[in-house]
Design a protein that fits this description.
The protein has 123 residues and is mainly α. The chain has helices spanning 3-20, 25-39, 46-73, 76-98, 107-121. It has one domain (3-121).
């Protein structure tokens, strides 16, 4: 997976969390976006890219996301993986609040994140 594909996954998951988990998700999404800027410094205008994806994501995939959410709610195993994603987002928030903003994710944390997302996409 190249850097652009990883960026797409991160943005997609940030939007997925934002669309499926209510008001608190906005804070999670902002923190993921902040971390994205650190993980992908080569992206010249990440905010514009995120905004573009958010608009497209909400327009094109909201029905799919509602369907995914419903299927996940019916699957205990899938809910465990959803919990992993939310825990990951929460860890980013905690890291950014307690540890200074220069802290980076470890390779293991990034790999675990993509493993969870990969499982969800196969449901």
């Amino acid at each position: 997976m190249n850097k652009n594909e990883k960026l797409d996954f991160y943005i997609g998951v940030a939007m997925w969390i934002g669309l499926s988990d209510g008001d608190l998700a906005q804070a999670e999404k902002v923190m993921i976006q902040r971390r994205l800027k650190k993980l992908f410094p080569y992206q010249e205008d990440l905010e514009a890219q995120i905004n573009k994806y958010e608009i497209e994501f909400k327009q094109d995939y909201s029905k799919s996301l509602k369907s995914l959410k419903k299927r996940m709610e019916n699957s205990l195993e899938a809910n465990m993986h959803k919990k992993n994603l939310i825990d990951f987002a929460t860890k980013i928030i905690i890291d950014d609040q307690i540890i200074n903003d220069q802290e980076e994710l470890t390779i293991e944390e990034i790999n675990n994140f993509f493993a969870s997302f990969s499982y969800i996409s196969k449901i």
